[in-house]
Amino acid sequence: xxxxYFDPSAxxxxxxxxxxxxxxxxxxxxKRFRAACEAVRDAEGRADALLIAGDIAEFGREAEYSAVAQxxxxxxxxADSVVCCTGNHDIRIRPYKSQLRRFRAFLCDVKNSPMCxxxxxxxSTQIGGYPLIVMGADRNSFEAAHIGKAQLAFIKxxxxxxxxxxxxxxxxxxxxxxxxxxxxxTWEGRGSWRGGIGLQDGELRHILSTHGDVFYLTGHLHxxxxxxxxxxxxxxxxxxxxxxxxxxxxxxxxxxxxxxxSLYPDKLTGTGxxxxxxxxxxxxxxxxxxxVKL
Length: 294
Ligand SMILES: [Fe+2]
Ligand SMILES: [Fe+2]
Description:
Blueprint: E1 12-17, H1 28-41, E2 47-52, H2 62-75, E3 79-84, H3 88-91, H4 96-109, E4 123-127, E5 130-134, H5 149-164, E6 169-172, H6 201-209, E7 214-218, E8 230-233, E9 236-240, E10 257-264, E11 267-274, E12 279-280, E13 289-293
Parallel strand pairs: 1-2, 2-3, 5-6, 6-7, 7-9
Antiparallel strand pairs: 1-10, 4-5, 8-9, 10-11, 11-12, 11-13
Helix pairs in contact: 1-2, 2-4, 5-6
C-alpha cells in the first residue's frame, strides 16, 4: 500500500493544500478530498500541521462546510494542528458578519483547529513552536482580498516578534501577491492584475519582505505543480499550492496535488504529492522537489 510519509528528523512537517472548494454540483471534489484526508490519517509519522489556503467551500454553504469538517476530522487524527484560512469563494456571497459566524462554526467542528476571533478572520497561532499568521479579507469581494490597515499592522507586529525570536514565520493567505507565482499565466492569462491579492499588494509585499525568512503560503490559482509554484525574492519565499480537490490546469493536471513541507535548521524542503493515491509526484516535474535555503 502506498503511504504518505514525514521525515522524523525535520523540525516541522507541514501538509499544505489549496482550494478544496467542496461543492454539491461536483461530487468528485468531496471524494478526492476525503481520499487526501485519509492519506494524512494513514501516513507514516505525524504531521505538525495541515494548512489549507482558502476556498474551502464553493458557495460558503453550511452543508459544504459540514462535508469538509467530516473529512478533515480524519486528517486531524494524525495532525497536531489543522488550519484553514478563507478564500474568495468562502466569503463572497453573504454579508460579511453572518458568513464569519458560519466560518467560526465550521472551525469549531474541526478537531485541532485554532479559532479566528469574533470580528475578523485574521489571527496568529503556533505550529510546532513556529509562528503562523492566518490572513483573511476584511470585507467581501468577488475575487481579490481587501486587507485593512489593522490587519497589515497586526502582520507587521507578528513578523517583528518572529524575527526577534530568530524564527522563520509562516503566513497563510488565499491570494498570491500580484504578478507572482506565474501570474497572469497561472490565471489563464486573463487580465493584468487578476489572480493576485489586489490593492494592498504593495504594502503587504513590503511587510513580508522586511522581516527575515517568511514563507507566504497561498492557493487560488488551481495550477498544478510547475515552474511557477515556488518563487523566492531574497528572504520572502512564496509557495502557491495547487487545488487538492478540483481540476488543476497547466502542464501538470494530476488530481489531488499538494505539498509536504519540511523545515530544517538551514532549509525548507518541499515535495509534491498525489494525495489521492499517497504517491510522490514524478521528480522531473519542476518544483515537485524543491529546497529553500534559510
Ligand atoms: Fe479556488
Ligand atoms: Fe480563489
